[in-house]
Amino acid sequence: MDFTAENNFFGDDELQFDQHRSGRPPIVDWNGIIDSNMWFFLPNSLRSESAIVNDNRPSPPTRFLCDGYKFTMKKTTHPETGEAGLGIKCSLYPDDV
Predict the structure, then answer these.
(1) DSSP helix/strand/coil, 25
(2) Domains of the chain: which residue ranges?
(3) pTM as predicted
(4) What's the pLDDT tens digit per position in 3-40?
(5) CB of 42 within 8 A of CB of 88?
(6) First and final C-alpha spacing in the chain
């Protein structure tokens, strides 16, 4: 095969890539969840309507899963405001195995 621009192959200096990251910024402080060993409350007001209806839950970054961390997520309400949301806690640390 001929690796030319006619066949859509380009060198590093020929393509210009966007410098900004796409997608939404994370709404869950995964590092804080790991460091605190406490429940993190994610209110439904920060989640999309389809995520609430379909019970979609945020995914931890792959680096934490590969390192051996496990997370528990449960539906709950905020103790002071009564708002519905998700409770997220790190339930297994790599050192516990």
Answers:
(1) coil
(2) 26-96
(3) 0.73
(4) 776 777 878 787 776 666 666 677 899 999 999 989 99
(5) yes
(6) 50
